[in-house]
């Protein structure tokens, strides 16, 4: 049996930087997989609006925060050694059965169990991180579950321009209409105090990539979290997606992603916009859109080479390192 390892030594080439990455799901996991190789101090702040799958079932049954995006962030912070990679696979493992346990993720159950035993969301997540040897900390963006609601066009056949209110993270992410704007329900959920503290002392804040309306923008809709993001001394980087997301951002250009971000948080100052070279059709137009946010556009090769719309962790790490070194 493999013994629990000592924490992995900090790589000497990591930058002496405190970074906070915000998002959820696969997008946040991609940025964390890259950033853990780049910075010495890393905190993930994760959306808590998921209402589907294993997370939705646990949320409904126990009244807990949906653990799925938190689990994915913890798995992304696991080390590259045998211990870290084994625990990452355990966290992500889903049961397959004909019964009630079908499709539950092991990590979701572990996280909810620790919340029940320890009585605190942050304390429970910190214990999971210790077990995994996670190379960073994972925090929820709010300490109560929230729901996402969106104003969506194109759902009424009689009036395609009419706006319909769609509620629920899964429903918004999979809508057949065009999302115009999102809000949180409740509108003023209590932010996680530890997340606010991390942003206050950060050198860099990274938003994106990820589901734009359901993973990235929600951070800017929590009042105290938005205040922290708009007043932080940290430099702010926005990482754009490789392509529009079916349902949420069908037909969106990279410029439109930035315009939507600005519309939801016009007081957010952005320093850098990072985009993949092959995802940019109009570099001049995107540079102009970035400049409107006060940001420099950085175009780099950060996509996986297999043709899928995924960021390559090593390429993304190199891009983040170059951006942060030049600051």
Automatic annotation (TrEMBL):
Its main location: cytoplasm. Pfam families: CofD. Keywords: Cytoplasm. It is found in: Cytoplasm. GO terms for molecular function: LPPG:FO 2-phospho-L-lactate transferase activity. One of its GO terms (biological process) is regulation of cell shape. GO terms for cellular component: cytoplasm. The keyword Cytoplasm applies. SUPFAM superfamilies: CofD-like. It comes from the Bacteria. Required for morphogenesis under gluconeogenic growth conditions. Belongs to the gluconeogenesis factor family. This is Putative gluconeogenesis factor. It comes from Nocardioides iriomotensis.
């Amino acid at each position: 049996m493999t013994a629990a390892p000592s924490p992995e030594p900090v790589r000497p080439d990591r930058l002496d930087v405190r970074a906070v990455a915000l998002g959820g799901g696969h997008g946040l996991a991609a940025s964390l997989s890259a950033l853990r190789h780049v910075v010495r101090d890393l905190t993930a702040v994760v959306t808590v609006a998921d209402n589907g799958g294993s997370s939705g079932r646990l949320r409904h049954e126990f009244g807990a925060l949906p653990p799925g995006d938190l689990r994915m962030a913890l798995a992304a912070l696991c080390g590259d050694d045998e211990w870290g990679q084994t625990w990452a696979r355990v966290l992500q493992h889903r049961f397959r059965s004909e019964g009630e346990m079908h499709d539950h993720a092991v990590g979701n159950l572990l996280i909810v169990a620790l919340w029940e035993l320890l009585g605190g969301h942050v304390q429970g997540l910190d214990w999971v991180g210790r077990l995994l040897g996670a190379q960073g900390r994972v925090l929820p963006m709010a300490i109560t579950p929230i729901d996402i609601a969106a104003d969506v066009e194109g759902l009424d056949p009689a009036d395609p321009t009419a706006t319909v209110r769609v509620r629920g993270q899964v429903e918004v992410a999979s809508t057949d209409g065009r999302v115009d704007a999102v809000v949180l329900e409740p509108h003023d959920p209590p932010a996680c105090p530890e997340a606010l503290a991390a942003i206050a002392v950060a050198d860099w804040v990274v938003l994106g990539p990820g589901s734009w309306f359901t993973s990235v923008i929600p951070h800017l809709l929590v009042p105290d979290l938005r205040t922290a993001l708009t007043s932080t001394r940290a430099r702010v980087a926005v990482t754009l997606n490789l392509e529009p997301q079916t349902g949420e951002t069908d037909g969106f250009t990279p410029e439109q992603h930035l315009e939507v971000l600005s519309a939801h948080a016009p007081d957010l100052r952005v320093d850098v916009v990072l985009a993949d070279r092959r995802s940019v059709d109009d570099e001049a137009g995107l540079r102009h859109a970035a400049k409107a946010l006060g940001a420099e556009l950085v175009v780099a090769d950060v996509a996986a080479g297999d043709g899928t719309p995924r960021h390559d962790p090593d390429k993304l790490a190199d891009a983040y390192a170059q951006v942060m070194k030049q600051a």
